[in-house]
Specification:
Strand order of the largest sheet of chain A: 4-5-8-6-7
Number of strands of chain B: 5
Bound molecules: flavin-adenine dinucleotide, iron/sulfur cluster, FE2/S2 (inorganic) cluster
Strand content of chain B: 15-25%
Shape of chain A: globular
CATH superfamily of one domain in chain A: CO dehydrogenase flavoprotein, C-terminal domain
Helix content of chain A: 25-40%
Number of helices of chain A: 12
Largest sheet of chain A: 5 strands, antiparallel
Oligomer: heterodimer
CATH architecture of one domain in chain A: 2-Layer Sandwich
Number of helices of chain B: 6
CATH class of one domain in chain A: Alpha Beta
CATH superfamily of the largest domain in chain B: [2Fe-2S]-binding domain
Largest interface: A-B, 45 and 46 residues
Shape of chain B: globular
Radius of gyration of chain B: 17 Å
Strand content of chain A: 15-25%
Distance between the termini of chain B: 55 Å
Structural class of chain B: alpha+beta
Order of helices and strands of chain B: EEHEEEHHHHH
Helix content of chain B: 25-40%
Largest sheet of chain B: 5 strands, mixed
CATH class of the largest domain in chain B: Mainly Alpha
Chain lengths: 328, 174
C-alpha cells in the first residue's frame, strides 16, 4: 500500500479546503470499501480526509413530510431508525440485506452511495479494465461476467453497481445533497449516477472533490407499502445477483401508482420506468405484473453467462408486486 | 496543510479500558496494531478484507471489522477485544456457552464469533430488525434460530461449527 496522510476535520469548510488543497486527497467514510481497495492497490490516495467527525450523523423529519438522512449516518442506524422502518420499509430492508452486522456498523450513507463495482477485473490491478485504466480494455465481456449488467452497459464497460441501499433510494426518488467547489447542489438520484457510455471511469455526475452531506427522502405516504427483495448466491453476507425495490399504491384492485427499481442488473440502480408506466391504471393482477416486467426486460442485452438474470429479476418483480397487493 | 504530508502519527488507542500511546504508519490497520504492537493476539486475521469476521472487535460497544479500519481512524473509540470480554476464571456467559455446546473446532474464528455475538445481543436488545425479520416496522424481535443465523452471518467458520455456535447463543438468550 502507498503511504498516505490523514486528516479528520470537524468542519465541512475545512474538509472542502483540504480536498481542494492536495492532489490525490480522498474522503474516508467507514472505510469498508476504500480501505479494501487501497489494500488491493486499486486506490492510491495521497491523503485521507476522514469525514466521520463532520456533523452529518442524523436522521430528521423534513418540513414536507419526508426524511433527511445525514451522509455520515451508519448503515445500521439508518436501518434501525423507526421512521425509516415505518415510512420507507424497503429502504430499511435493502440496507439490512447488505454486507454484515459488522460492516453495516462501519459503513456510512455517503460511502455506500459511492462504493465501487465488484467486477473482478476492476479489483485486480494485474488485469486490464476500462473503468480503472481508461482505454485498457474490458476483459469481462468475453470473460467472467455472470454478475454483470444486462441493462445500460456499453461496449466499454458492463459493470454493475453493487449497492442495495441505492436501489431503494432510486425507487423513492431520493435527493442527494452535495457541497462542490462551485457551491451546494441538490442532485436527484436519477441524475446522480452516470451510465458508462464512453467514459466508464466517471460513475457519477459529481464534480471532483464533491462532499456528500445528506440524502432526502421525499414524502410518499404509500411508500409504507414497499418491499426490497434480493437474490444472491448464498443466504446472507453476499452481494445481489438481482434485486428489486417496489412500492405499490393499490385501490379497488387497480394500480394507482407504483415505483420499481432493480439492482445488480445495470451500472446504476435501475429505475424500471417502463414497467411502472405500463402498470399505472391497470388491474393489480399477476398477468399485468408479468406484462410490466416484460416491458422493462424487453430491453435487456444479456451476455453468455448472465442470461439467468432476465427471468430472475422478472420473477422478483412479479412476486414482490403480488406480495404488496396482499399486504395492502 | 504542510508541504510534505506526514504519513505517520502519534496515535492514542483506548483498548479494554487501557490507554496506549503509539507512533504508527497510517497504513497500519487496527487489527495489525492490536496484534503486532499491543500484543493482543486474540483478534484474528482471516481474510483481511471484511469477508470473514475473524477480526471482529467492538468500537463503543458496536461490532466492527478491525481489518478495515486504520488505527489512526480508531482513536476516538473505546475498543473492546476478546481479551476485554472475559478471562480464564471470569468467563463471559457466551464464552461458557461456547465451551458447553462445543461451539468451535480449531477455534480460529471463535474470538470474532464471541465479540460479534456480544454486540449482536445488544442490537437485539435495542430492537434492531434484521434481513429475516418479517415486518421491519414492528417492535422488538424474538431471537429465534433463523434470526440468530442471519445476524451472525458476518462470521464465517471454516470448521463449520455453526450448529453448535447457534445453540450456544440460543442458550444464553434462554
Ligand atoms: C465483504 C463485504 C460484503 C459487502 N456486501 C455488500 C452487500 O451485500 N450490499 C451492499 O450494498 N454493499 C455491500 N458491501 C459494501 C458496503 O456496503 C460498502 O463498502 C459501504 O457501504 C461503503 O461505505 P463506507 O462508509 O465504508 O465507505 P468508504 O469505504 O469510506 O468510502 C467509499 C467511497 O465513498 C467516498 N466517500 C465516503 N463518504 C463520502 C462523503 N461524505 N462525500 C463524498 N465521498 C464520500 C470515499 O472517498 C470512497 O470513494 C460489502 C462490503 C464488504 C467488504
Ligand atoms: S466491466 Fe467495467 S469494471 Fe469490469 S473489466 Fe470491464 S471495464 Fe472494467
Ligand atoms: S480478517 Fe477482517 S473480516 Fe476477515
Ligand atoms: S472453529 Fe475453526 S474456523 Fe470456526
Amino acid at each position: 500500500m502507498k503511504e498516505f496522510g490523514y486528516e479528520r476535520p470537524a468542519h465541512p469548510t475545512d474538509a472542502l479546503a483540504m480536498i481542494a488543497g492536495v492532489a490525490g486527497a480522498r474522503f474516508l467514510g467507514g472505510g469498508t470499501n476504500l480501505v479494501d481497495l487501497m489494500k488491493l492497490g486499486v486506490e492510491t490516495p495521497a491523503v485521507l480526509i476522514d469525514v466521520t467527525a463532520l456533523p452529518y450523523d442524523f436522521v430528521t423529519d423534513d418540513a414536507d413530510g419526508g426524511l433527511r438522512v445525514g451522509s455520515g449516518t451508519r448503515n445500521s442506524d439508518l436501518a434501525a431508525h423507526l421512521a425509516v422502518r415505518r415510512r420507507y420499509p424497503a429502504l430499511a430492508q435493502a440496507v439490512l440485506a447488505g454486507a454484515s452486522g459488522q460492516l453495516r456498523n462501519m459503513a456510512t450513507v455517503g460511502g455506500n452511495l459511492l462504493q465501487r463495482t465488484r467486477c473482478p477485473y476492476f479489483q485486480d490491478v494485474t488485469k486490464p479494465c476500462n473503468k480503472r485504466v481508461p482505454d485498457s480494455g474490458c476483459p469481462a465481456r468475453d470473460g467472467e461476467h455472470h454478475n454483470l449488467a444486462i441493462l445500460g452497459g456499453s461496449d466499454l464497460c458492463i459493470a454493475t453497481n453493487p449497492s442495495d441501499m441505492a436501489v431503494a433510494l432510486a425507487a423513492f426518488d431520493a435527493v442527494v445533497f452535495v457541497e462542490e467547489p462551485a457551491g451546494p447542489r441538490a442532485v436527484p438520484i436519477a441524475d446522480f449516477y452516470r451510465l458508462p457510455a464512453d467514459e466508464p471511469q466517471r460513475e457519477t455526475t459529481l464534480e471532483p472533490g464533491a462532499l456528500i452531506t445528506a440524502v432526502a427522502l421525499p414524502a410518499l405516504p404509500w411508500a409504507a407499502n414497499s418491499r426490497y427483495r434480493k437474490a444472491r448466491e448464498r443466504a446472507s453476507y453476499s452481494f445481489a445477483i438481482g434485486s428489486v425495490a417496489v412500492a405499490l399504491d393499490v385501490a379497488d384492485g387497480m394500480v394507482r401508482d407504483v415505483r420499481i427499481a432493480l439492482g445488480a442488473v445495470a451500472p446504476i440502480p435501475w429505475r424500471a420506468y417502463r414497467a411502472e408506466q405500463s402498470l399505472r391504471g391497470q388491474p393489480a393482477t399477476e398477468v399485468a405484473f408479468r406484462e410490466a416486467a416484460d416491458a422493462e426486460l424487453e430491453w435487456a442485452q444479456p451476455l453468455r453467462d448472465n442470461r439467468y438474470k432476465v427471468p430472475l429479476v422478472r420473477n422478483l418483480m412479479v412476486r414482490t408486486l403480488i406480495e404488496l397487493v396482499q399486504a395492502s | 496543510m504542510p508541504e510534505r504530508v506526514a504519513t505517520l502519527s502519534p496515535i492514542r488507542l483506548s483498548v479494554n479500558g487501557r490507554e496506549y500511546q503509539l507512533e504508527l504508519d497510517h497504513r497500519t490497520t487496527l487489527l495489525d496494531a492490536l496484534r503486532e504492537n499491543l500484543d493482543l493476539t486474540g483478534s484474528k486475521k482471516g481474510c483481511d478484507h471484511g469477508q470473514c469476521g475473524a477480526c471482529t472487535v467492538m468500537l463503543d460497544g458496536r461490532r466492527a471489522n478491525a481489518c478495515l479500519i486504520f488505527a489512526v481512524a480508531a482513536q476516538t473509540h473505546d475498543i473492546t477485544t476478546i481479551e476485554g470480554v472475559g478471562a480464564a476464571g471470569n468467563l463471559h456467559p457466551l464464552q461458557q456457552a461456547f465451551i458447553d455446546h462445543d461451539g468451535l473446532q480449531c477455534g480460529y474464528c471463535t474470538p470474532g464469533q464471541i465479540c460479534s455475538a456480544v454486540a449482536m445481543l445488544a442490537e437485539v436488545e435495542a430492537g434492531w430488525p434484521s434481513a429475516v425479520t418479517p415486518d421491519v416496522a414492528a417492535g422488538p424481535v424474538d431471537l429465534d434460530e433463523s434470526e440468530t443465523r442471519e445476524r451472525m452471518s458476518g462470521n464465517l467458520c471454516r470448521c463449520g461449527a455453526y450448529v453448535n455456535i447457534v445453540a450456544a447463543i440460543q442458550d444464553v438468550v434462554g
